[in-house]
Amino acid sequence: MFHWINHNSLYIITFLFPIIVSIIFYNYLSKNKLILLSVFVLLLVISISTKILIEPGNKTNSLEINSILSVDKPMVIEFYSPNCMGCVISEKPFLNFQQSYSEIFATFQIDIYDKNYSDLIRKYEITSTPTFVLIHKGKLVDKYVGLLTNKEKLYIRFKNK
Question: What is the pTM of this model?
Fold first, then answer.
């Protein structure tokens, strides 16, 4: 949802904002510690409420994940991040791969920030983007991590697995 914010920025902003505003309030407006504590708690509650409203909840749809993993033909899944330059460069070659080898491989793209797939990301130990994973009947067969410059690179890697 927030492609301009990395995954930790929202948490940092949520907890630093009340602290900074409370310190400024204490130093420039009032030296009363009770008022300082009240302002801090109020801002913390507002910040956490805002974060909860802005950040989508984890609504894992296991039926969808199971249907993705139970495809009969081998599946290539691209794990990407919208703010990853390597992922942006790899997008066109992966789309070419999808068009050229759709009869051999099923393909799917997963945004690592999508909470619906967090279990899948942990299961296949995705630690870097872009990552291309070959899965057959729910089992990891091979993994390619790094920039994809052309569709043939991925095909050569996964064709005999």
Answer: 0.59
**Per DSSP, what are the bridge partners of residue 139?**
136
Task: List the domain boundaries for the chain.
Answer: 9-54, 62-158
CATH class of 62-158: alpha beta
Per-residue pLDDT of the chain (161 residues; tens, 9 = 90+): 334 444 456 666 667 777 777 788 777 777 777 777 777 788 778 777 776 666 544 444 444 666 666 778 888 999 988 778 888 888 889 999 999 998 988 888 888 888 888 888 888 888 888 999 998 887 888 999 988 888 888 888 888 87
Structure tokens at 53: 């409203």
Residue 81 neighbours by CB distance under 10 Å: 18
Q: Residue 136: phi, psi to the nearest 5? A: -130, 120
